[in-house]
Amino acid sequence: HVQLVESGGGSVQAGGSLRLSCVASGNTWLHYCMGWFRQAPGKERWGVATIDTRTGATNYDDSMKGRFNISRDNVKNTMYLQMISLKPEDTASYYCAARLRVGSCSSFSEMSYWGKGTQVTVS
Fold it and tell me: Measuring CA to CA, how many Å separate 24 from each of 3, 5, 36, 43, 74?
């Protein structure tokens, strides 16, 4: 079992940047696939990016490539999402998620653990 806590959200102007963090509890960090998802008001939750905590391999939704960068710190059990050139349409609640690694971490599906989210508002 793992607990996830996001931070780093806030309000920024269009063109600005934010870095989100997700800290995971427990000592099995390297056994997980991690990911960032977002949900805008009235819309379904959507996968932003995933990362393999062991190898660092990443996968992005095509629409996020170039502006969003996912990374991790295996010493701090922390995953990050660096977001640049933010647009109003990036406004959403951003969620951290995890699942035990079975095969590739590129899939956005079957995440087992979720954080409570952090709000990002771009105006």
Answer: 6, 7, 13, 27, 10
Give the H or E element holding residue 21: strand 18-24
Distance CA 90, CA 14 (A): 9
| pLDDT per residue as tens, the chain (123 positions) | 889 999 999 999 999 999 999 999 977 888 999 999 999 999 999 999 999 999 999 999 998 889 999 999 999 999 999 999 999 999 999 999 999 988 889 999 899 999 999 999 999
Dist CA 16 CA 103 (whole Å)? 36
